Amino acid sequence: MINTLENIPGAKGIDYRSFHAFKHREEPLLFDRATGAVLEIGEGCFTFFSALERGATWDEAITESQEVAPQFQLEDYQDLIRGLRQRGMFQFQRVDHEEQDAYLRRLWNHKPRRIQLLMAQGCNLGCRYCYAWRNGSNQKGTLMTFEVAKASVDFLVQRSGNRPNLMVTFFGGEPLLNYPMVQQVVSYCKSIEQETAKEFSFEIITNGTLLTREVTDYLAANKFLMMISIDGWEEMHNYNRPSLDRDTCYQSILENALYAKSVYEAQGLHPIKVRTNLTSKYHDAQSVFEYFDRLGFSKIGIAAIEPLPHGDKSPSAMTEDQMDETADHASALVLAAVEKIRAGIPLSRYEKRTIEGCFENPQTRAIKGVNCGIGRNTAIVDNKGNIFPCHRYEGMMNYVMGNVFEGMSYEQTMGYYRKVNRNATSRCHSCWIRDYCTGGCAWLLSSKDGTLVDPTERECNRRRAGFEVFLYARKELRRLMPAAFATAENRDLAEFSSCGSGKEGDSCKCATSQCDHGSD
Ligand code: SF4
Ligand code: SF4
Predict the structure, then answer these.
(1) Are strands 165-172 and 199-206 parallel, antiparallel or unpaired?
(2) pLDDT value for 482
(3) Which domain range does residue 479 map to?
(4) Whose CA is nearest to atom 5 of ligand 1?
(5) CA–CA distance from 299 to each of 273, 327, 330, 503 (Å)?
(6) pLDDT band at residue 398, thresholds of 50, 70 and 90?
(7) Where does ligand 2 bind, in terms of residues with CB under 6 Å?
(8) pTM of the complete model
(9) Which of 433, 443, 456 to mutate to test the pocket of ligand 1 (most atoms within 8 A of CB)?
């Protein structure tokens, strides 16, 4: 009697976790986890693989499948599996803890190309969802000194090894509260370029309130990448991001952003990016996108303030129901865009944006569980010189990884990476989208006491449902637009304009939608 896939001649090593059988719009599909391939299959095959995925024995799976496709015998499935295996499918690697640890040690030895400085840990806005308020670190007046900033730059130079191009990101709070120090740091970086054989570039994340013409001209002259946080239209922005002195400053922020946009365009610089957070009160991503699109912004970032799985407070976060609604809406938009392409109807920019990711090969990018640049290119330094994994950890002292005066702590850094990596080796290990997800944003899972929790089942269901829609849409687009899939590596998006969700200068977007900060 054959009870496991391992018993099939030529199919040794097949694991039920190596594939996923699902139906979309009544169409049975088989997804192969290692290759990312999606196959159209018949009802018998679907029943057979679904049963195996649920944990049925071979006998049970054959019996079930023959109820819908009596013409297929065990040998037929054996032949099918054997043939697909020869094409690289049905591979599954069990956790190899030594290999995982070697991978984490490589992260420890990583040579970063960027450092982020909390120029001011205070802010002149009181955003309802601000993690710095929540973490207790938003203290007006706590500006970074030159001593800490210089040590941070020196730390980056020393840790970056032979990398010739380095980036300093000015973050906050509001970094322009410490504008003279921004200028001083830029001058310092330039002054050491020759002796260190490094070339520096700069980036700033600002709320736009202090972005005067003079400041913009300075940032443009020094080719800063710039991201301005604006939450949509006036009413939305004023609700989400009120000024501390209760004045509304929306109009001046918008004017500042539009001036910066015009200067950057005139000088051929990397486009200004505007970025909005969606909250429980305002969570219509499409309206936000279309609003900024009408204003002429080409780079538009939109992300949700998500509910936290560990129960720590996340003020103004979207509710689980709203997250479900938003995810369903996004899936419906993807499917509608595919239908429009099928009917030859041109897509709006927003529709193009919704399907842009479908042209990317679903690579197994997250296999080790650390899927963004935490502690490396997203590391952030506070005004005491403490190093945190990324900006969202600001003030969460259980996650300090070292400091710029004494360097990274091996124990704290590796301890943190091991906690994050636990996702890959435990709960997520059996999940069919593990290689493409692995828990998502580590910060979301990080509770203040230093423990990392699992994502909620509801969040996982959203991700899996969304991934099924992505796979279906990708399969259909491949049929409708074969030229766009000419090679696995090169997507041909000539007919799709870039809309800000891809490359950002030389830094990539996170694997998740949580922030705009790069990985390696
Ligand atoms: S959906 Fe959930 S269980 Fe699956 S990989 Fe993502 S976080 Fe892990
Ligand atoms: S995804 Fe972004 S916010 Fe989340 S841990 Fe990584 S760098 Fe931080």
Answers:
(1) parallel
(2) 87
(3) 328-360+465-520
(4) 434
(5) 5, 22, 19, 11
(6) very high
(7) 372, 374, 378, 390, 392, 441-443, 510, 512, 514-515, 517
(8) 0.88
(9) 433
